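Narrative summary of target 7.
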Amino acid sequence: MATLGIDVGEKRIGVAIAHGLVAVPLTVIESAGEKADMERIAAMANEYGIEHIVVGLPRSLDGSTGKQAEKAIAFAESLSTQTDIPIDTWDERFSTVSAERMLRDAGAKHDKRKSNRDAMAAAIILQAYIDRINT
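Modeled conformation, tokenized:
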């Protein structure tokens, strides 16, 4: 099953893809407004034959949903009006920190880490989701 992972940020949207059991970073979308972002993601989903979408849900450390989590939920709901593809949210606590650490440990320079971090975070979110549903 082809699955798309989304890490929604203020300025950028990280996108990852999995065809089966392994998630990989796909791209980073520079946010151009909600309508344009939704259209771009829906087009990507059609292009790659996506059957499921997972949107990262940035819960607070205590597990509650704060302002950023509410934005992610609204994003997922808005995206659901653009496509018939099932959409789930997934707890993404520490995904960006983990992505930054992985890229730094791999020796990526600061500017390269910044440009790839969001797609890597999306891959971490998607991989956690895939691992959980396959256990």
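The first strand starts at residue 2 and ends at 8.
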